[in-house]
Amino acid sequence: MRDFHKYQVWQRGHLFALDVYKQTKCFPKEELFGMTSQLRRASTSIPINIAEGCGRRSDAEFAYFLNVAAGSASEVEEELRLSCDLGFMDETVTAQLEKEVKEIKAMLGKFIETLHL
Question: For the chain, what is the domain count?
Fold first, then answer.
């Protein structure tokens, strides 16, 4: 089994999820069970799936969870854009978060390529 704490992609994903939580604190109260919840769940899914994959025994299983994390990152990208377009976040914050999630996705893709499948 792998120690997920040692992977930079997990570390960045963890910090990214914390940033998303901070930014969504200011979302409208009526969005608590809508966009706020959706964005938080998708962002936390990134490091959670990396961690879960580390608990699996084969590279194929690990790669599966890394792919799920990458899918969640794509979901977050769209939710960030929607949040900005709906006026819940400003463009500067959105651009920062979009840049970070794209970098995490790229890291996940490279990581998956290194696994011997």
Answer: 1
38: burial class by Cβ within 10 Å (0-12, 13-18, 19+)?
middle
Q: Which residue's structure tokens are 């990396």? A: 50
Distance between the two ends of the chain, CA-based, in angstroms?
Answer: 17
Report CA-CA distances (Å) from 89 to 4, 22, 81, 83, 94.
Answer: 31, 11, 9, 6, 6
Residue 48 burial (CB count, 10 A):
20
pTM (two decimals):
0.95
CATH, residue 39: 1.20.1440.60
**Phi-psi group of 56: left, alpha or beta (phi > 0 → left; psi -120 to 50 → alpha; rest → beta):** beta
pLDDT in tens, 57-85: 999 999 999 999 999 999 999 999 999 99
